[in-house]
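## retry 2 of 3
previous attempt timed out at serialization; input unchanged, resubmitting
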Amino acid sequence: MSIVVGALLYDVIAVRAGHRAGAWRTRLVEEVTTRPVDDPWLLATGAVAVVLGLWLLILAITPGLRRLLPLRAPEDSPELGAWLDRRGAALVLRDAAMRVPGISRARVRVGRHRVIARAEVGFRDMATVRDELSEALRKQCRQLALAHTPRLTIRLRHHTH
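## retry succeeded, writing output
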């Protein structure tokens, strides 16, 4: 997409600088102006343009900073804002998971509303490990002081050699 936009921008700047328009652009203009309005090719192109425009509009009005998690503001200064990188939060939560006895390997993904933890249990009862892991991750989430408490999903499996 950015290559197409870059090529179009280059061509527009070249025309403004006094050069001729690219052959591809003049051909495209000829195609669009000589076809009837109800032509399927023209209608499909228009539909794609509308969908792309709507997508850009949605991106423009939705909040940014998708890779960041908002942190809880101190009570004495609610206008203060701070964020935590989702990858950093995942690493901290993975370290908390690895401290639970019985877990031999852990992977944690942190989304905007959910934490998904996958762990392999080398020994110990699965139910006990699940309870301890759940408590450890909830405790670590509280210590991270996230603005919104994420839902926690835990998937365990036995470690196979």
